[in-house]
Amino acid sequence: MGSVRLILQDHQWERIRPHLPGKPGDRGRTGVDNRLFVEAVLWLARTGVPWRDLPESFGNWNSIFVRFSRWSKDGVWDRLFAAMADDPDFEYIMIDSTIVRAHQHAAGKKGGLKLARSAAREAD
Asked: In terms of residue numbers, what domain contains 92?
């Protein structure tokens, strides 16, 4: 798949696969590329890049975005996270406010932003 590093190991994918739409027996299309799609979403979450910057090796970014939105609306991600939450292999994927810390300046300090003239400009 080119130079993009994948995230899921085979045993992790085998745990995830039964919880996704598109299995044989489900109505509609089968999810032939479900693994690649999930890898694309995980890659985006890990890197924080915009959808349009998704490497082409994952497929068309807009198709992936539309599918992500559809799965979100249908509750697929919620069900998947609930099913995987007790698995220690997925700890690094589960992100919440207890493990995300902002830099001390991210929220701004009391009194708002103050711009100071640089010493170099004052010397002019």
From this structure: 1-124
Rg from Cα positions in the chain: 21
Number of structural domains the chain divides into: 1
Under DSSP, the state recorded for 108 is -
DSSP classification of residue 9: -
Alpha-carbon span 72 to 18, nearest angstrom: 17
State pLDDT tens for residues 102-114.
444 445 555 554 5
Q: What is the pLDDT of residues 30-65, one digit of tens each?
A: 666 899 999 999 999 888 899 999 999 999 999 999
Contact at 8 Å (CB) between 57 and 4? Answer: yes
CA-to-CA separations, 123 to 72, 92, 115, in angstroms, rounded: 56, 50, 17
Helix (H, G, I), strand (E, B) or coil at 30: coil
User: How is 48-64 classified by DSSP, letter by letter?
Assistant: ---GGGS-GGG--HHHH
